[in-house]
Amino acid sequence: MATPDATPDGRFEATVERRVEWHDTDAAGHQHHSAVLRWAEQAEAELLRRHGLARLFGRTPRVRHEVDYRARLWFGECVRTRLRVVRLGRASLEYAFTVHGESGLAAEGRVVVAHVPPGASAGTPWPDDVRSALDGAAGAGRR
C-alpha cells in the first residue's frame, strides 16, 4: 500500500507499507541491512510513478546513501517506509527516509541520486519538465 502526499512545507513524499519477508532477513533473523535501502527505493518508485516521472528509472543512479539503524525488524513484522524530497540540485536530488516497525523508528537515512541519461558518462542538468515537477517537491531545500 502506498500513499503519496504533499507535506505541509510543500515537499512531496510517499509512504509504503509492507511486511518483512523471509528474503529481507539475515542469518540472525532480523532485517538484512540492504532491505532498508530496497524499501526506500520502493517508496521512491511509487513517488515517481504518482508524479508522472517513471521515465527517470534507469536515469538516476545512486551517488550517495547513508542509513542509521535504530532497531531490528523481524520476519513478518509490518513496516512503514516514508520517503520525501529534501533537496533539488542542478543534476542531483536528495531524499530523506524513515522506516518504522511495530515498535517505532527502526532506520532513517538519506539517498542522493544524479540525473544521468542513457549514453551519458556523467550527470547532466535535469530537463525543464522534470525540474518543474521536482521544484515543487523540493520546496525550501533547493540548492
UniProtKB/TrEMBL annotation:
Instruction: Show the taxonomic lineage.
Output: Bacteria, Bacillati, Actinomycetota, Actinomycetes, Pseudonocardiales
Q: Does the keyword RNA-binding apply?
A: no
Q: Give the GO molecular function terms.
A: hydrolase activity
Species per Swiss-Prot/TrEMBL record: Saccharothrix australiensis
Q: Does the keyword Hydrolase apply?
A: yes
Keywords, comma-separated and alphabetical: Hydrolase
Enumerate the InterPro entries for this protein: HotDog_dom_sf
Record protein name field: Acyl-CoA thioester hydrolase
Q: Where do the record's region annotations for Disordered lie? A: 121-143
A Pfam family of this chain: 4HBT_2
